User: Which sequence fits this backbone?
């Protein structure tokens, strides 16, 4: 099972304890995975056929919030809309209008409003209801990439209004979310690992959150170790190259100038470096008598290098 499927499986089992949160979840499912069809003044509510988790949760929510027991209406054919197949779950009547009224999809005259315009902000005015709405919206529209490969969470929305609505809701929790158009859809996405962790926490998916956090820790440790190794390799390479250049300069001075012509401190430095080609500057300083610090060693070696360059010029 993919990580995205694991997240959805966890979210499908989480149902708000308060009725107002359950209504927010029902509203999310109807807005994101539902379709209302009208025929001779009678309405039928459909739910996307390819999302079993959504349908199962929708029936559970109806039972808990309204004590309505329903299932797929086999006697009514499926319909295809916007490239998606929908299956009938409720027909016009008291139960359907009770549900739509509770999630503010009925006007003052009892007329059914267009789902495409989104549900009323009254349904998600509480913070807990926003969490519930985001949870079931992700169940309908969302996906998350394998954290081992990268961090990317998205909602694929059918119109800009839906995407903006979800964006405002997510950003109310101080999480940055962006929108991009992909073919005919508006895709709301989060790229930062920390933002995805925060959203999983908001949607109340603790198991998925911990799995993602563990993967992030391992990944960050691996990256840290790689950076440290690369840094150490670079430092070693730099030290080896510097030592090679110093030995080359000192050998040139010995062959073309002679150590006897050097000042005592430079001669001692040259002899110690030739005898210890792999030693660090600190180690070289400890070999001198009296002991010289790292900056002092570096100063003497630089003077030897300058002398070698002058000799080569002559």
Assistant:
């Amino acid at each position: 099972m993919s990580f995205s499927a694991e997240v959805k499986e966890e979210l499908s089992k989480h149902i708000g304890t308060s009725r107002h949160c359950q209504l927010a979840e029902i509203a999310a499912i109807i807005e994101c995975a539902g379709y209302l069809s009208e025929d001779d003044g009678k309405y039928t509510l459909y739910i996307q056929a390819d999302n079993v988790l959504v349908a199962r949760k929708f029936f559970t929510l109806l039972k808990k919030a309204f004590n309505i027991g329903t299932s797929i209406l086999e006697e009514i054919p499926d319909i295809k809309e916007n490239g998606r197949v929908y299956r009938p779950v409720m027909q016009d009547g008291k139960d359907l209008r009770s549900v739509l009224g509770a999630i503010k999809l009925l006007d003052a005259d009892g007329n059914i409003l267009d789902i495409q315009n989104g549900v009323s902000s009254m349904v998600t005015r509480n913070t807990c209801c926003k969490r519930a709405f985001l949870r079931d919206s992700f169940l309908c529209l969302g996906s998350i990439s394998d954290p081992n490969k990268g961090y990317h969470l998205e909602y694929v929305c059918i119109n800009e209004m839906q995407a903006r609505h979800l964006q405002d809701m997510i950003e109310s929790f101080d999480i940055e979310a962006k929108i991009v158009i992909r073919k005919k859809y508006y895709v709301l996405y989060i790229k930062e690992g920390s933002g995805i962790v925060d959203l999983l926490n908001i949607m109340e998916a603790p198991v998925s959150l911990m799995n993602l956090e563990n993967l992030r820790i391992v990944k960050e440790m691996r990256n840290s170790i790689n950076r440290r190794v690369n840094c150490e390799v670079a430092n070693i390479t730099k030290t080896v190259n510097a030592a090679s250049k110093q030995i080359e300069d000192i050998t040139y001075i010995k062959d073309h100038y002679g150590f006897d012509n050097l000042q005592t401190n430079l001669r001692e430095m040259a002899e110690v470096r030739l005898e210890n080609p792999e030693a660090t500057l600190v180690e070289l300083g400890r070999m001198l008598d009296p002991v010289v610090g790292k900056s002092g060693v570096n100063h003497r070696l630089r003077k030897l290098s300058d002398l070698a360059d002058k000799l080569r010029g002559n």
Remarks:
- The chain has a mean pLDDT of 88.
- The chain is about 55% helix and 15% strand.
- The chain has two domains: 3-204, 228-313.
- Residues 105 and 119 are 7 Å apart (CA to CA).
